[in-house]
Design brief:
The complex is a heterodimer of chains A (about 350) and B (about 475).
Chain A (H helix, E strand, L loop, with lengths): L3 H13 L5 H9 L4 H9 L13 H13 L3 E2 L4 E2 L1 H7 L2 H8 L8 H20 L11 H12 L4 H19 L3 H6 L12 H8 L3 H18 L20 H11 L4 H8 L3 H14 L11 H10 L8 H7 L4 H12 L6
Helix pairs in contact in A: 1-5, 1-6, 2-3, 3-15, 7-8, 9-12, 11-12, 13-15, 15-18
Chain B lengths: L2 H8 L8 H9 L4 E4 L6 H12 L3 E5 L3 H13 L5 E4 L5 H9 L6 E4 L1 H4 L2 H8 L3 E6 L19 H7 L5 E5 L4 H10 L6 E4 L7 E7 L5 H11 L4 E4 L3 H10 L3 E4 L5 H12 L5 E4 L14 E4 L6 H8 L9 E7 L4 H11 L3 H12 L4 H7 L7 H12 L2 H27 L4 H8 L33 H8 L4
Parallel strand pairs in B: 1-6, 1-7, 2-4, 2-5, 3-4, 5-6, 8-13, 9-11, 9-12, 10-11, 12-13
The chains are: A mainly alpha (about 350), B alpha/beta (about 475).
InterPro entries (chain A): Helicase_HTH
Protein name (chain A): Helix-turn-helix domain-containing protein
Amino acid sequence: MVHLADGVLLLAIKRLNGERSERSLFHVLNGKRSATTLQDAFFYELEPVFGQFPQTTYAYESLLKGLEKRGWLNRKQFKLTEAGDMLASPEAVEDLFNRLGGERRDFNATTWKRLSLFVQTFMSKEHERTFYPVQADRPAEQWVKRLLQLDRDWKVLMQSFHHEIEIALEKIGDPYATAVVYRFTGAFETGLTYEQIASLLDVDAETARLYFLAGWNELLIALPEDAKLRGFTYGLSTERMTYSARESYELFLKGYSFQQVQSQRRLRTSTIEDHVVEMAMYLDIFPLDQFVPAEEIVTIERLRHPNSWALKPIFEEMGNVSYFQIRLVFARLKRGETFV
Amino acid sequence: MYESTLKRVFGYDTFRPGQHEIIHSVVEGQDVLAVMPTGAGKSLTFQLPSYIKNGGLTVIVSPLLSLIEDQMLHIRERGERGVARLTSMESAEEKQEIINHLKRYRFLYLSPEQLAVPYVTRALSNVKIQMLVIDEAHCISQWGHEFRPEYARLGELRKQIGSPQCMAVTATAPESVKQDIVEKLALFSPEQFVHSANRPEIRLMVERLEKEKKLERLKELVRDVPKPAVVYTATRREAEALAFELDDALFYHGGMSTEDRRLVQSQFLRNEVSVMVCTSAFGMGVNKDNVRSVIHFQIPATVEAYMQEIGRAGRDGEPAFAVLLYADGDERIQQFLIDGQYPKDEDIRLAYFERENGTSVSQLSRILRMNEEDPKFLLLKQMLSERSLQEALDWVKERRRDRYRQLGQMMDYALIRTCRRDYLLRYFSESAIDQEECCDQCGAIEFPETTRIVRKNVTEWRIRLTQIFSFE
C-alpha cells in the first residue's frame, strides 16, 4: 500500500536532485537552524517540509531502509529510482507537500498549541469539567493563563472564533477540515489521534497528520486581517531569517560595513557570511553588487546548469570567486532575478 | 484526629485503610517505609503531614517525569500553588527561579539526577526540609525489578541536605528489597507499614494456548470481558498492530508525540474509548478507577511488574479481571528485551580497552555504535567510572541472571496448577487467603454480561466544531 505521505517524502528526496546527502534531508526534516540546512531548504524547495517531520536518527534510518527495500530509493546516490519517481510525481503529492507550512517555522505549531489549549481550558471551565490538558507545553500554558486573566467577554469572542474557523475551513474543504476539527478538544469531546483521524478519512496515520498540518496552515492563511483569532499569533512571526542574522542585518541597515558588523558582533567571518546569505535568500531587495562584481554575477548565471544548485563546478571553473559569492548569486537567481 | 485537615485540604471525609497510621508516624517524626499497592492513596500520606506540621519543604524524589507531572496536576487541581518541580523539562532560568524562592513552596518534586546536581543539593541544604520522600523506592535495590543506578546515591544525598526525616514509599517490595531500601537510605529504626499485596476484587486467570491462536482469543476476550479494559503487550509495534485488530481500541506507548499521548489518555479517562493497548509505559500515574479488566497478551518480565499492571484494575473496589495469555516460548521476547538492556561482553571489553587508551566518552559511543542517551551506554559509562573490567563483566552477568530468575518466577505463575493468588502472596512473603471468586484454579470464572457500548457515528466536521464550541 502506497500512501500520500510516502509520496511527500519521496518528493523531498527528488527535489534534492542527488546533490545533497541523506544527512542534509534529515536536518531539513527536523528543522535544524544551521546555515547549511537553511540553504538546503531554500535552494531545493524544501521549505514546506522544514521541521515538519521531527524524528530520531534511528527512525530516519529505518525510514530510508524502508524506501530502499520497496525499491523506490537508491541510497548510494540518494536519488529516487524510476518507481520512486512515479510515486513522487502526482499532483496530489505536490499539492500536499507545498501546503505543509514549514516555511512559517514555529508560527503554525505555536499558534495551534495556544488555541487548542485555550479552547479546551475555557470550555472545560465553562462546563465545570475537570480536564487533562492536551498540550504539555510550558510557554503555551503560561500564555493561556495570562490570556484568561484579561477582562474580555470571552463567550462572545468564542463565538467569533468558532465562526472564523468555520468560514476558513469551508474554503479549504475536506479532508483538511475534518483533520483540523477533530484535533480540537472541548469540554466533552476529546480530540482524536492521527490514527483515529486516519480511519475517518480512510488514509494512513502519517497522511492524516500531514492533512492536519496543511489544513491548519491554510486556515491561518485564509483568516482575514481583522480576524479575532489572529490574537493567538500575538508576538509570533513567520519570518524565516534567524534571530542572529537579523541582528547583523540591522547593523548593515545602519550603514555598517562587513568588517564593522563583524567586529561589533565579535563573530567569525564565516558566520557573518552565513548571515549575508540569509539576507540574500530572504530579502526582497538585496545589494548583490556590493558583494560580487557585476561581470562575475553574469558569468555565474551563465555557467549554472539550469537544474542544479551545486556550487562546486562553478567554483572550480571560475577560480576567482568564493563559495560565499556563488551562494549569494544563486540565492538571487533562485528568487527569480536575472542578470544576463 | 487529622480528619479536619483531610476535609479542609483534600475534601475527603474519611481515610482509606492504613493511611491514618502512616500519617501519625510521619507527624511524630519517624522515618517510615510504606509498602502500599498502587491506588491505595500513597501520596496523601506524605502530603497531609505537611499541612499539620507546616515545618518546611517536603521534597519528593520520583523517577518518572510522567509521575511527577501527574501528581503536580492533582495538587494544583485542589488549589495548592506551593508546588514546583525540577526536572529535565525546566529551562535553566526556570530552575534558578525555583531554587531562588524555595521558601515559596510546600512541595518540591524532582528527579534523582536533579537532586544530585551540586547547586541544587547546596540550595536544599540551606532551607528547612520537613521531609524527604523517596517515591518508587524499590528502584534503589538491585534486587528490585526496576533498579535505577541514579537511585544509588540517594542515601548520601540525604546526608548532604542535612539528613531530614525520610519516608520511602513503593507499591511492591519483597523482603530483600525492603531491607535494601532501609539500608541504602540509612533509615533510622523506621516504622514499617506493609499493606497486603492482595487485591481481593481482582479475579486471576491464565489461559495457555498455542501462539497462532492468541490473537483470535484476544479478540474474543476483548469482546467478552467487562470494560474499560487495558491490554498489555511487550513492544510498541505489537501494541499498534493489536489496536488495529481490536474494536474500539487505541494504542499507547512511549514513542508517541506528547499531544497524541495526552489525547489517548484523556479519551480513556473519559470513557470515550473502551480498550487501551499499551506497553508498560501506560499506567504510571494514570488515575482511572473503573478499569474492569487487564489482559496480558505477553508475559511481563517480573511478578512485581505483573502485580503493578493488573493493579490498575478495580481500584474502585468493584470486581475486576486479570487474564494472562501464555503460549510456550512467549518468554523469549522478555529474554530478548532483558539481553538488550545490558551491554554485551565484547562491548564492555572494547569500552574498557578504548578508555584505557584515552578514547573520550563521546568517541566511545561512536565506536560502539550506541546512542549517547542509550541506557545501555549510560550504564557502561557508570561502570567505567566505578568498576574494574572483571567486576563489570561479573556484575552484568549477575544482573542478567537475576532478571532471568525473576522471569522464571513469572513463568511459574503462568504454569502452576495451584491457587494463583496463593502464589502471588507467597512471593511477597504473605500468607494465603481464602476467598470466593479467586482464580481459575480455585473455580471457574465467568464474566458478567456486558452491554455493548455503541459508538457514535462520525459526525460531519461542522457539527463536531459546533459541539466543541457549544455553551449548552
